[in-house]
Structure formats: structure tokens, C-alpha cells
Amino acid sequence: MSKVIIRPASLVKQGDLTLYATSLRVSDLLIPNFYSIERLDPENACEKGYQRLLNKSRAKKLADYIVAGQETKDAFLPTSIFIATDKSIPFHPSNNTIEINIDEIGPFNVVDGQHRVEGLKMAAEKDPRVLEFEVSVNIAINLSVIAQMCHFLIVNTTQKSVEEGVAQRIRARLTMAMGVDETPNLPKWILNSVQKGEDEKALQYVDYLNNDKDSPWQNKVRMANDENSEGSINQKSFVKAIKKYILVANNPILSTEKEDKQHKIFLNYWKAITNILGDTEPTVLFKYNGVELFCKFCVPFYNKMVNMPDYKVATMQALLEKVFENVEGDAAGVGHTDFWVKSGTASGLNTGALSKINSEMVKALHKKTDSKTEGEKEV
User: Is 11 in the same domain as 160?
Assistant: First the structure.
């Protein structure tokens, strides 16, 4: 037998977006198959979900507040929950009501308000009186999943922050959807980022390094929404460094090599680094300071490599060894493992100090001019 909910509602039109402003009882929200939450899956972050992880402590605080307010009848939750469906919902203008058949419409996606929904669910488990508690709800209809994801990003960047790693994944997926899937109008600052596609490109680098079985970076990056990862640096920071230092106009391989080869060259670069400095713990090479320095040094290094016969690990390693031998000043020791061990020199460096070391490394890179045969590069 189907479950049908009939509620008074106001029809709201915002451009092509159709919303119903209404209220629902907590008992309605808890009907089986009424809602789902598309959380970003760290194991398949390019394809599944967009919601941040649930903060159970935050939901519990709301639950405790709602339960405490049942005796005094002063529990107050005015902020509306935003749910959406890609289907249509019958609206009856004669009496301003909507008719929701859960078997036909459900489950709704919770676009905004997952902590409120979870808190109300927890409260109802503690006190059955909460089942009659009403909450404000905005229901969007005929809204595709890609459009729902866009609205989640809009809501959480115009009103409150969303974890940047999650936002990077969403912007990357929107970049891939542009011109292929129907997407709603985006705020200018989001649209510009999506059109440039830097998040999508940078994430390809990070995912390649983190997943390749021969990579020194394998499983060392904490992906968005992955609470269980033991990675040494988060996705957000690595992507930011790649966007800032690698995806730049003076990077010679961006215009000469295909993307899959760019990733292999970047992997070879890190293999060469770790062949010299080591990749065993404890080391800060795979933390912020290591990423910041060697991403910053990467493009000058690539520009030197242009005149060399290939981009193989051995060729890169030989050049890096010369740099480390010739480096002076603040960078002395940067080419030794002891420099990078935990609690060593590298641990205490700030951004300014890293910039000085990079400058010394660039000077060392150009101390000698190597005459090499130019030609097609191999990886």
C-alpha cells in the first residue's frame, strides 16, 4: 500500500526552478524511502555523491535540544530543510496543497539540512513526541542530480562554508558536465572556476599519484570525506599547490604533452626525489613543506629538462643530484635525508623560508649548462 502525504504548500518560481514551501512532520521524514543523502564517496570521489560527512556530535546537540523542549514546548527550529527530486509533484491550486506519493516520488535527496534531519531522527528515537514536531521544508521538483549538486554548492558557498576538498570534487565534476549535462546558472565566482577547470586537472594529478601502485605517494593523500585515511597531507592542500605552481603558463609540458603523459612525468619527478631523499617514515617530505617546495621547484626544473633527451626517472634524478650538490646558503642540506626527517630542519620551515630555499635551488639548477641532444622526450 502506497504512502501519500498531503500538505499545504506555496508554489514558488525562481527562474526555471520550481519550489514548494511547506512543512513536514518528523514522522513524515522517517517514512521508509522518504529521503536519502548523497554523501561524497572518498573511494569513488569523481562519480558518487556530493554531501560532506555527517558530524554526529552536531546532530546529537540538536537532538538533545529538541528533546529538552518537548516538556516546555519551546523547541524552535525555523531554518528550512532543502530537499529535491527529479520528478514532478502534483499541486492543487484550488486548496494550495501538494500530494506526495512516497512510492512514486521517493527518495528525496537532502540537498541542505542533513544534520537537522539526522538530529530530528535521533530526537524521535529518544522521545516519540518529536514525531509530531513540524519543520519547514523547501521542495525542489524536476531537478536533476547534477543540478541538485550545483544548488548544494551554491547554498554552501554563499551562506556557509563547505570543506574545500569536497568543493574541489564538485567543481571538477561540474567542469566535466559543462556542455554535456544540463546545469543551472552558477554564481560568477563558481562559474569562472568551473570553466577554467583547474580543480579537475589538479585532481587528476593527485588521484594519479595517490593510486598508482609504483608511486611513492600511494595512499598518502587524505581524500575529501575520508575520515579513516592515514595519509600525510590532505587532498585540499595538494590540489592547491598544483593549481598554484604546476598549472601555470610557463610550464613547458602543458602545451607539449598530453595529460596522461603530464601525470607520468610528475610521477617520475617524485620518484627521482624519493630515490635521493627516501620515502620511509618518519619524514615530512610528504607533508605540506615537501609538497610546497617541490611543486614550487617543479616548473623551473621542467624548463631545464626541456633541453635533455627524456623525462625518465634516471635522467631527472641525475639532474636533481647536481642541484643538491651545488645548492648553497639557506638550502644547504636540502638534498639529504636528515633534512627531511620528522623534527629535522624541514619541519620548522615557514612559507618564506621555503621560498628562499627554492630560490637557491633554482640558482643551483642553472650553475652549469649541460649540452644535450634535443629531441622527443621519453617517459
Answer: yes
Q: Is pLDDT at 220 greater than 60 in this prediction?
A: yes
Q: How far is CA 77 from CA 134, 306, 372, in A?
A: 9, 62, 71
Q: Is residue 376 part of a domain?
A: no
DSSP bridge pairs for 82: 112, 138
The verdict on 154 and 205 lying in the same domain is no
Question: How many domains does the structure of the chain reveal?
Answer: 2
**Under 8 Å between Cβ of 168 and 235:** yes
Distance between CA atoms of residues 259 and 243, nearest Å: 15
Contact 9, 21 (CB under 8 A): yes
Supply angle C-alpha 78, 81, 85, rounded to 5. 155
Nearest CA to 242 out of 273, 210, 202, 193 is that of 202
Residue ending a domain, among 171, 193, 215, is 193
Please report, for residues 117, 331, 346, 368, the alpha-carbon distance to residue 356 in angstroms, rounded to integers and kept in the order given. Answer: 51, 8, 13, 20
Give the residue with greater pLDDT, 218 vs 194. Answer: 218
Pair (232, 346) in one structural domain:
yes
Q: Is 242 left (phi over 0), alpha (psi -120 to 50) or beta?
A: alpha
- Is 179's pLDDT higher than 80? no
Quick check: 236 and 245 in contact, CB under 8 A?
Answer: no
CA distance 319 to 368: 11
Show the beta-strand stretches assigned E in 104-187: 108-112, 134-141
